[in-house]
Design goal:
20% strand; binds magnesium ion; binds adenosine-5'-triphosphate; alpha/beta; single chain; 29% helix; 8-stranded mixed beta sheet; 10 helices
Length: 326
Amino acid sequence: MEEKIDGNPLLKINGLALGFGSGSYLPVKSLDLELGQGEVAGLVGESGSGKSLTAFALMDILPYGATVRKGEILFQGENILEYSAKKRRELCGKKMGMIFQEPLSALNPVLTIGDQVSEIFRHRLKTGKKEARERALELLSRVGLPNPGSAYESYPHRFSGGMRQRVVIAMALALNPDLVVADEPTTALDPTIALQIIKLLKDLTAGKKTGVLFITHNLRLLEGLAERIFVMYAGLVLEETAGGLKDPLHPYTLGLVKALPPGPSEKTGKTMIPIPGQAPSPGDILPGCPFAPRCLDRFQLCLEELPELHLLSGGRRARCHKYRPC
Ligand SMILES: Nc1ncnc2c1ncn2[C@@H]1O[C@H](COP(=O)(O)OP(=O)(O)OP(=O)(O)O)[C@@H](O)[C@H]1O
Ligand SMILES: [Mg+2]
């Protein structure tokens, strides 16, 4: 059940559109997403669907040339797109933390781990050197680094990918943020380490009322992690599930589930059925549903008119004409 603060969800994104330049190149066309306090929600989609740009918009680190064209990002009820640059900077780090896909590029190669972690306390909380060191050591131990003292003095290149990601998680959680955005935090890791990192993230945020937006292209990772999954395609949310992937509604989500390799509790003989065709590129202007050309359930209207994100039973939503009210 979603927890609200003063009646507001932790995060609510309404109709967010992100573009490059001033033309029709819109990698994110309309994104609607809601996350409660203490909730883990998934944002899933194929490569290029606009997941990272969404995360960058949240953290105010959009790449050069990208701008917010439309929409609102309500964080604890306030539209942070209206904040000054200074206020956004204060928010990111203190109330919002981000975990990046590639831990090595998220860390500075010429500074020790200790300097990078303690700097957060010195710079953001203005603590003295000694206290910052103590807090950094405590944090490094909390994320499961076996020898925090030696890790503190080490440079990132001496660590394995999993260890580096633990450091990045430590930095994202250092100031006890209310929201953590994890953008494919395990893609660069082997499956066993990936599971450890997900468990760590779950353990560290459980009971803390921290909301986690877990971004991935791998639906399997979200099983048992997120009840609510936002499925993105071509810059649009096509489905918002409730109860994970148990009962998908949108033909695209169903296609993704059918294309998955068998899970641990499924028969090994399961046939994986790929979705035929390719996703449109961000500059393509399609009058109808962007998935229609690949959809086996399509009818004429699907090619002509973009469906709304219809609210359905159990708080689920699907952007599909199959579910339009009669
Ligand atoms: N700096 C840029 N200039 C132009 N187009 C860009 C830029 N950054 C991203 N894009 C385009 O925006 C679209 C969405 O990119 P984004 O990185 O958000 O995708 P993604 O869903 O995170 O994909 P992946 O799973 O590969 O990480 C892509 O088509 C990409 O080519
Ligand atoms: Mg990405």
